[in-house]
TrEMBL record:
It is a multi-pass membrane protein. It comes from the Bacteria. This is LysE family translocator. It is found in: Cell membrane. Coiled coil: none annotated. InterPro entries: LeuE-type. It comes from Saccharopolyspora taberi.
Length: 211
């Protein structure tokens, strides 16, 4: 067992709980597809983490991080994707603002299915350049000089994924528990506009960071 497993676990838990683009996307999708959409968004994000982890092990992440052009291209693509998702959320909430009476919303317009939620979570995570740097800079700090690098990295990656899956499972259950509240039109539209605005802001922040 890695000597720094417990410190790494605590760090990953704190890191996972800090809201970011993935969380904003999960909340946005939960408003259109309920707890199931949030869960499948999370599974897509976790799959993206797995891809980044494998790429880090085989050295692809180092290539992307070392190339300013590739890194910038990924950053801009990710920023555009977040802005697009946030903007479409704002547009749909505005377009459907008067279509449903002030009662429960049982079938929100533009409902998101599992496949769409998973794909959006996967793409959002894959296009996040910070995840690339995370696996390149975070894992080595917790690997002792006398520990096998590949095996220890695999253990840390598994821990990272387990924490992420547990987080998304608990978050989706919480959304399910608040379903009655979230299905009220005014609250849902407000939350859609907030999450849409947050995603646009995050996308713009990603685009200008480091420029």
């Amino acid at each position: 067992m890695p000597s720094q497993l417990i410190p790494f676990l605590l760090f990953v838990i704190v890191l996972t709980l800090v809201p970011g683009p993935d969380t904003a996307l999960g909340l946005r999708n939960s408003l259109r597809g309920g707890s199931s959409a949030m869960w499948w968004t999370g599974l897509g994000c976790c799959s993206g983490l797995l891809v980044h982890a494998v790429a880090s092990v085989v050295g692809l992440s180092a290539v992307f991080a070392a190339s300013a052009r590739l890194y910038t291209a990924i950053k801009i693509a990710g920023a555009c994707y977040l802005v697009w998702l946030g903007a479409t959320t704002l547009w749909k909430s505005w377009r459907h603002r008067g279509e449903v009476p002030e009662v429960e919303v049982r079938a929100p317009a533009g409902r998101i299915g599992r496949g769409t939620a998973f794909r959006q979570g996967l793409v959002s995570n894959l296009l996040n350049p910070k995840i690339i740097l995370l696996f390149l800079t975070l894992l080595p700090q917790f690997i002792a000089p006398d520990e096998p690098r590949a095996e220890t990295s695999a253990v840390f990656t598994l821990v990272f994924l387990v924490v992420a899956v547990v987080y998304w499972r608990l978050a989706s259950w919480l959304v399910g528990g608040l379903r009655t509240l979230l299905t009220r039109r005014r609250i849902r539209l407000l939350l859609e506009r907030v999450t849409g605005g947050v995603m646009v802001a995050l996308g713009l922040r990603v685009a200008v960071e480091g420029t």
